[in-house]
Amino acid sequence: MDTVYDAIIVGGGPAGLSAAIYMARARFHVLVIEKEKMGGQITITSEVVNYPGIFHTSGEKLTSEMIRQAKAFGAEFLSADVTGLELEGDYKTVHTSRGDFKALGIIYAGGAHPRLAGFTGETEFRGHGVAYCATCDGEFFTGRTIFVIGGGYAAVEEGLFLTKYGKKIIMVIRGDDFSIDSAAVEELKEHPQVTILYHTQVEKVEGDSAVRRVVLKDRKTGEETVYTADDGDFYGVFVFVGYAPENGLLQGKVDLNPQGYVITDRDQKTNIDGVYAAGDICVKNLRQVVTAVSDGAVAATSLEKYLGSQYRKLHMKRTYVKKIEPKEEPKAEAAKAEEGAFLDDDTRGALKPVLDRFEKPITLRLYKDDSELSYEDEKLLKELASLSDKVSYEMKNAEPGLEHTISIVRNDGTEAGLYFHGVPGGHEFNSFILAMYNTAGPGQDIGEDNEKRIAAIQDKKDVTIAVSLSCTMCPDLVAAAERIAAASDKVTVHVYDLAHYPDLQNKYNIMSVPCLIVNDKDIHFGKKGVAELLDILG
């Protein structure tokens, strides 16, 4: 008989990770399946200050510790796209892009995704004035008038953040007041740059290559107000109107409320025995990390009781998963950083074991010019090479289009088709290290299906990705594109730090990152995983 898990958890956000920690700590055989990035949407949040007991952290750090904790207790993790669920009967089946998996119980923690506001022009101007992440895109609207749509937690927090960039922030709220009551609301109301319009909605946005005209409608009187930008000016429109549940796999299988959220009892149980739900996918009043992890813990402990009854019913003998005792990893010995070094001692220590896994030598080639960027790149490459005998670096005079550009070169001397224009710092540093890892091997495991799809690419694909080093969503797209390029001679990836390439920004009128351009014409915005990117590449 094939392996049957005690529990399969669909979704690797805080709710799913919390459930995994509780299930694995009870020594059940647990598999967590996530289609995108383990950690969920909170990983794009750079500042978390309201999680009890953690004074200040980022979403990435918080969830990475949850993952480490779950693995230490013996939980297994799989990166795959769940394509179907069979939930009736004693054994549940989860169909994925990497095969089928069976379990006695399921915890569904698929979460929710940002909801579109639905006004005319929203899709057309996405990335050209309409945005959904203030951290990623706020800087593009420095000195402009910015409309913020929504009256909840996200809208208030992001509205305050955008006061750092916009000369004027216009809050557009459908109701008669904000939907929350907090000190942040009062701060927003008292801010001199902020205007608040209640019982108002955006009817449409218009323009050419950017948003030049915004039409608002008073929901009580029906009166429309038109904002028209001065010559050469444009607007930013940031949408924060809540989330839509990721319920496609559940429709027709478990009970949902009219808004599409899963109905559960106090034990997080759905209407189907052995099937539980946790996190933002559920009917609830507050969608925050703290409530997600609570849901996960409740779902896990409830499922534990169900599993006990199933073992007795099916006359099965339970096997206990061996706990992986956490132990202190020996600190990697890396050369200490000199004063003014690009990499500090902690970063060097973290990089050393990663670089030691490289299977083949690679060379980091810098197309050098006389710019400050080239000087910083040279420092970085020199320091990386000092950490591993598998990494070397070389200088080459810049060629047109390759000024202050790093290229990763394979062991046979050929360029891997992975280029970074600028200095890969900030959030892009990790994706740059991943590009090195994927070129040197063993590389990230992306599943047999994706490997076959990469091998099937026949036509040349020139991929340009515009990023901001402060963007928390950009690295996912960069890592996916570079993983594909590392495995295919047909795909070339050029990553640009948009702060240093205004001509690129103007050419494609980029007002949101990440921006993906395929073969100089096909433009997409937002983060993408390997499978999604392969869909685009055909």
From TrEMBL:
Residues 5-296 form the FAD/NAD(P)-binding domain. GO terms for molecular function: oxidoreductase activity. It comes from the Bacteria. Gene3D superfamilies: 3.40.30.80, FAD/NAD(P)-binding domain. Signal peptide: none annotated. CDD domains: AhpF_NTD_N. InterPro entries: AhpF_NTD_N, FAD/NAD-bd_sf, FAD/NAD-binding_dom, Ferredoxin-NADP_redctase_2, Thioredoxin-like_fold, Thioredoxin-like_sf. Residues 462-527 form the Thioredoxin-like fold domain. Keywords: Flavoprotein, Oxidoreductase. This is Putative alkyl hydroperoxide reductase F subunit. The lineage of its organism: Bacteria, Bacillati, Bacillota, Negativicutes, Veillonellales.
